[in-house]
Amino acid sequence: MRSLGFDRPDILLVTADPLVDHPAFPANLLARVLQAEGFRVALASRPNPEDPESLRGYGLPRLFAGVTSGALDSMVANYTALKRRRSDDAYSPGGRAGGRPDRALTVYCNLVRRAFGKQVLVVAGGLELSLRRFAHYDYWSDSVRRPILMDCGADVGIHGQGEIAVVRLARLLDRWLRDAPDDAARPVSTAPGLFELPGLVFRQPASRPLPDGVVSLPSHEEVVADPVAHARAYALAERSRSRRLAQRCGGMMVLVNPPADPEPHELDQVFSLPFSRDPYPDYRGAPIPALEQVRFSVTSHRGCFGGCAFCAISAHQGKRVCSRSQASVLAEVERIAAHPQFGGTIPDIGGPTANMYGSTCTSGKPCDRVSCLWPSRCRHLASGQRAYAELLSRASRVPGIRHLFVTTGIRMDLVLEDEGLVEQLALCHTSGHLKVAPEHVVEHVLKAMRKPSGKDFARFLEKHREVSRKAGRNQYVLPYLMAAHPGCRLEDMVETALFLQRHRLVVEQCQIFTPTPGTAATVMYATGLNPATLEPVFVEKDPERKRLQKALLLCHLPENGPDVRKALRLCGREELSSVLLRR
User: Which of 71, 84, 219, 546 yields a CA-CA distance of 20 to 30 A from 325?
Assistant: First the structure.
C-alpha cells in the first residue's frame, strides 16, 4: 500500500482462502475487477480471528469491507460427510488443515466489526452467503438456522456472482461520499439507491411495508416448526430467483434482490484482467493443491441449467449459462502459453458442466423451471455442442499448446446429441481417463437427484469405448458416483456395484452425500419430502450404513471386503459376495 501511495484502502476484502492471483480464487478476482475500476483495494487472507489488530493495520476502508469464506463453504471444507474434521485443506499452503475457521463468513464479519466498529459498512458475500441467505437446514448442528445476515454481523450481503454487484456498490458509495464534505458525516448505509442494487441482501423491520412485487416466503419460524413449510419455502425461492424475495425472521424481514448475473461481454472483461496465475510470495514456495489443479485451466462459462438436486451451483451462479466469446477464451489460452512455468498442457477448458458452453435459451426471458433438462428437456433450450467442439479445436491449435484435456464434468445426455464431439473428446481431449459424473444408475435415485436416465451413461460408455478401440487407444471412463443421497438405500448401491462389474468400471472417487445448505437434496434430507412434489423421500441418516453404501462402490479395493460382506448380509444378498469381491 505504501509503494502504491495510499495509507488506507477504498475497499478491504477479507477471505478464508490463501492469496493467489488467479480467477478461480474469488477474493483475488474481485480485487482485480475493483482495481481495474480505479479503486484502491487491500486483501487480507485468514486474519487471526482473535486479533482485531490483524485488520486495523490496513486502515479504515473508505467505502466498505467485503468478507467471503472463499471458493469453498467453510463447513464443507473443514468436515467430511460423516462430520469428521478433515486432515487436509486443498486451499491451504502445503495442504495443511486448520487455517480456515468454522463458519468463516460469520467469524470474519465479526472480526471486521471489532476492528472498525460501526465506522465501516460490512458486506458479506460469496458461496457461504448465497447458500444461507434464507432460513436453512444446517447439517453440522442438525438444526434450521436463521438467514445468515441475521447472525453474521454484516450490514448487507451480495449473493450470486459478485463482480457486477460489487462494482455497482463501490461506484454508488463512491459518488455518495465524494459529494460529502466529511466521510463520517454521511453514513454509507444511507446512500440513495443502495437497497435497489441487484444482488443485494439486506434487512428491514418486519413492520415496514414490503415493496410491490415482492415474493414472501414462509417465515423462519414456520420453516423450523413445519417440514411442509420448509419444503415449500425452498421450492418457492428456487422457482423465483429472478424476483425480489422476502422472509420474515423474528421482528425483522430479510429481503433478497434478484442477482446481478454478468453478460458475456462482462465476463470477457473479467477474464481479460492481468492475472499472474501465481500465489503471493508470502508462502515461500509452499504448494497450494487447489491452485496446482487449476493453474492453467480455463473457465469458458458460468452457470448450469442441469438443476441437480444435490448441487449448489444453481443457487449461487444460476441456471442461465453465460459463455465467454471464443476470442476471449483463445486470448487467455495464448497468455497461458506464454507463462514461464507452462509445460504445454492445458488440463481443462470448461465450467460447471463443460459441454454446456454456448448453450442458450431461445425464449429470452426468465422462467420458473428449476432445470432445463428435468423432468424433461425444455423446448427452448438450444444446445451448444458444436460451439464447444469448435472452441476445443481452435484452442488446441494455439502455438505452444501440446495437449488440451477436458476434466470438468461432461453432461452425457447432451454430448450424445453430437457423435462428432464424443469422438473428439475420446481421440483428442482424454488424458487416458475421461471423468464423467453419472452420480448413480438406479432410476428412482436418479429421479430424486434430478439426473438423466442411467441408460445415457451406458450408451456413452459404449460409444466412448467404440471410438477408442477403433483408434487403437487404451482409454478409460472414470465415473463419479454418490452414496447415501436421499432416495438411495443400501440395496440401490448393490445394484450400482453390479452395474460397475458388468461394465468393467473402476471407481476412483466416491463421495457420501453431504447436506449443503441451499440445495433441494438437503431439504429432502431435513424434511423427508421432495420440495418439487412434497412426496415422501427415503433418507439414510445412519452413519454406519452411509459408510457401507460407499464401500459397495469401492468393492474392488481389498480393504473394503469386510464392509461389502456386511452390506450384502444386511440386504440378504450374501450370494453376491464372490461376484463383487472378485479380483
Answer: 71
